Amino acid sequence: MRFQLFFDNCLVLISIFFCIQKCDGSHVKYKGCKVYQIEAKDESQIQKIKRFIKSFPTQIDVWSDSPQHCQLMVTKEQSIKLDAYLSKENIQRKILIKDVQKAIDKELEENDERVKQNVYSAFRRRRIFNYKRFNRFGDILHELKRLQCRFKKKMEIMEIGRSYERRPLVVVKITKNVLNECISNKKIVWIDGGVHSREWISVAGAMWMIKELLISKKTSIQKLLETHVFYIAPVFNPDGYEYTFTDDRLWRKTRRPTNKKGCIGTDVNRNWNFKWGLDEKNKEPCGLTYHGEKPESEICVQHFARLFRYIQPRLQSYWTLHSYGQLVYVPYSYTSKFSPYVSDLIQALFVFREKAKSRNNQFYGLGTTHVLENGLLLFGTSIDYMHGTLNITYSFNVEMRPSEATLGQNQNPTELFLLSPKSIVPASSEVFDGIIGTVEHIYGRTENQL
User: Fold this and answer.
1) Whole-prediction pTM value?
2) Active site: which residues (predicted)?
């Protein structure tokens, strides 16, 4: 059986790094940078766009290698050259963001407004954590500790190691009678966020899901907590995540220096020990999809991989949250061939989409990267590692809001990565419903097979 192409808008976002300015002690600035949407109508135009991209081998941030429906960020000066080039080649385009820095400022201003709306406790003289804003890493840690004190029987915090910059790598366990979890045979559901630093909605979504699992009175969730334990790592890459608040809002990678002078960070989702290093474009240490010097070169990947191998016998499903696109990828990413378990995965995908849509009527595309991104292949990804190395059948990469299919329609085209905090609850709730419904489906199938 083959996947049907449910979502045929492919995405490329190109960051031209010499449009960035940074003064001493200040944030990286993207003043004057523009985001174009370029639509290639045939293979000839696709190749012309690729040649334009290749003219900046170390300065381009490619989020998808399928430029049929692509988005490019360029400087004000480059936009003149780009317009001339596209006009000459008769390639259609439109400007989505006229000034990237203004879009960043707008997002941060809205997020700051959420801070002002927080309620202060007169008794303890502290600010209450706001699940409707994007929070700093330190605030997240404090909130997790507060939740653990409140829900001692349902929640436990594990620190599995420290990052390169010595921040704690934290995993939250949630289940009924959590103190007996280690000696139980409960199936494990894994959820993580913050793999790519700038994808703030993935962290906010993971935190929102932790809260819902703890406070929800829904019968479906209560039953799942009797048979499952949820392992949730809300900030997989804490160094990079904190860096997006202090220095560069659009930083993607880790913060460990590479073996090339001046090049910092590795793409966590190219660093896993499965089909690693097979793509030439991921070998440039300054590139934003750099795969590292070797598999599991990154400290966070080493610690989490060690935990995955330990819990593998009970790990039933793996969910990694990203943005954006409103897509759900399944293995494999490295090949056009489908997994031997493609039938099981398709059934699970349909359940996810139905449950997610029932919340806010949002559509999610389903399939492999090769299907959804017009032939895109990725190497060293976490879903392939879980599926191919650890033999976890149900392995999912969820791209949260927004969807580029709705740009210029019912969603703000200036958001993209810079999602408004107003979208946190609807985006998180629909994905949470999709995950819960799919976990129920998987559990029902496995129980019937016993």
Assistant:
1) 0.89
2) 399 (proton donor/acceptor)
